[in-house]
From TrEMBL:
Organism: Pseudooceanicola atlanticus
InterPro entries registered for this protein in UniProt: Recombinase_CS, Resolv_N, Resolvase-like_N_sf, SSR_resolvase
GO biological process: DNA integration
Signal peptide coordinates: none
GO MF entries: DNA binding; DNA strand exchange activity
Keyword DNA-binding found: yes
Name of the protein in question: DNA invertase
Gene3D superfamilies in UniProt: Resolvase, N-terminal catalytic domain
Length: 293
């Protein structure tokens, strides 16, 4: 099982060398280094690593905080790995999802996260019940009177909450949107985004467009991604899709591209449902001639 290492430091002044050396000693075949804040989930190198990993691989980090700064993000990444049949290991923490002990630790972490959410719900219910018993009406008085300032605060809070939820999933879709739009139609971008994700995390086109517009509005994505996609000849569509998959992971194998196309339910040039590496190679060659790679 190939071991793939990921090393991260927060600033350009720091060096990931100690982490990379530890990962090398752990026999990692490949090591990816990134300078980015741990609180930022839209990390391009991490997104590329998660795209690169395939069945049987193991993602290795020196410490959990090099991968994620929150329990929810850690569990989200591990869920993506499990969906691909891959594993996760931390050298300094007792987590190795390929072992029974590591799986147990992960289950404990997941239970702790759910317990914390349950406590918050119970405290909220108890607080509301206590207020009602004392004759107080729950909620914001400004909202009950439709005060403009209060309404504006609620709208901003909801927007902040929405952006926070988007940031948790940004690594799934932002790199693809930034790289493929507006050259590729939204329908095809959506299929490329959804292909490696578990079914319960699939995006709809309307939801993706809303997220992109929010990121454009806050300056996280250029306005050009919302531009109208140009008309593409029918014969150029498949090379464009294959080029997009290859562009997201230059090291991806021909067979892995076949698997991705089949998961997208994309038919071969001859209308078949089963893809062969030779067909992918032909499309990649055409993509190069078209200047798509």
């Amino acid at each position: 099982m190939p071991l793939i290492g990921y090393a991260r430091v927060s600033t350009e002044d720091q060096t990931p060398l100690p982490q990379s050396e530890a990962l090398l000693l752990a026999c990692c075949a490949e090591i990816f280094e990134e300078h980015a804040s741990g609180g930022n989930r839209a990390r391009p190198v991490l997104a590329r690593v998660l795209e690169r990993i395939s069945k049987g691989d193991t993602l290795v980090v020196v410490r959990i905080d090099r991968l994620a700064r929150s329990l929810s993000h850690l569990l989200e990444v591990i869920e993506r790995l499990e969906a691909k049949g891959a594993f996760f290991r931390s050298l300094r923490d007792p987590i190795d999802t390929a072992s029974p002990q590591g799986k147990f630790t992960l289950q404990v972490l997941g239970a702790a996260a759910e317990f914390e959410r349950a406590l918050i719900r119970e405290r909220t219910k108890a607080g509301l019940a206590s207020a009602r018993a004392k004759g107080r009406i729950g909620g914001n008085p400004g909202l009950r009177t439709k005060d403009p300032a209060a309404l504006r605060k609620v709208r901003l809070a909801r927007q902040d909450g929405y952006m926070e939820r988007l940031n948790e999933t940004a690594q799934d879709w932002v790199p693809h949107v930034r790289r493929l739009r507006p050259d590729m139609a939204w329908e095809d971008v959506l299929r490329i985004i959804n292909a490696p994700l578990p079914h319960d995390r699939h995006w709809t086109q309307s939801r993706l467009l809303r997220a992109v517009k929010a990121y454009v509005g806050d300056g996280f994505l250029p306005a050009e991604v919302l531009g109208r996609a140009g008309r593409r000849e029918t014969d150029d569509r498949l090379p464009a899709i294959v080029a997009a998959i290859k562009g997201a992971d230059p090291e991806i194998t021909l067979q892995a591209i076949c698997d991705r196309l089949e998961s997208m339910r994309e038919r071969t040039p001859r209308g078949r449902t089963s893809w062969q590496p030779s067909s992918v190679r032909m499309l990649l060659e055409r993509a190069e001639k078209l200047g798509l790679l």
